[in-house]
Write a structure and sequence with these properties.
Helix content is 26%, strand content 9%. The chain is α+β, with helices and mostly antiparallel strands and 107 residues long. The chain has a two-stranded antiparallel sheet. It is elongated and about 55 Å long.
């Protein structure tokens, strides 16, 4: 990751190194779907006001998410606290190899 602290020489060096990487045919990747989770609780309440339980992702369907899951790449949250965990989200979560998830203990 570059920032304002890097010099032009740093960028030039990176450019020269990247030019040496052999090119190849593009790899087709699965298209990302736009997740539209159902919000069932305010994020602050899900994150701060309820006890949390970590559980295997496969057992979390129907539970309320209690954490922020932001795999890298793309560093964009898949789900936020207070959103309902459903089958579509679970498929994306497993795609990014996240085996577990924190859920709210709501009675």
């Amino acid at each position: 990751l570059f920032s304002v602290t890097q010099s032009k020489e740093d960028l030039d060096r990176l450019y020269e190194i990247m030019k040496k990487i052999p090119s190849r045919n593009a790899v087709r990747i699965k298209e990302h779907i736009m997740l539209k989770p159902k919000v069932v609780m305010p994020p602050y309440e899900a994150y701060f006001d309820h006890p949390k339980t970590n559980m295997p992702a496969l057992k979390a369907i129907g539970k309320i998410n209690a954490g922020i899951y932001c795999p890298c790449p793309p560093c964009v949250p898949l789900i936020m606290p207070g959103e309902l965990i459903d089958e579509i989200f679970l498929e994306e979560l497993l795609r990014y190899a996240c085996p577990g998830i924190a859920v709210c203990d709501v009675k």
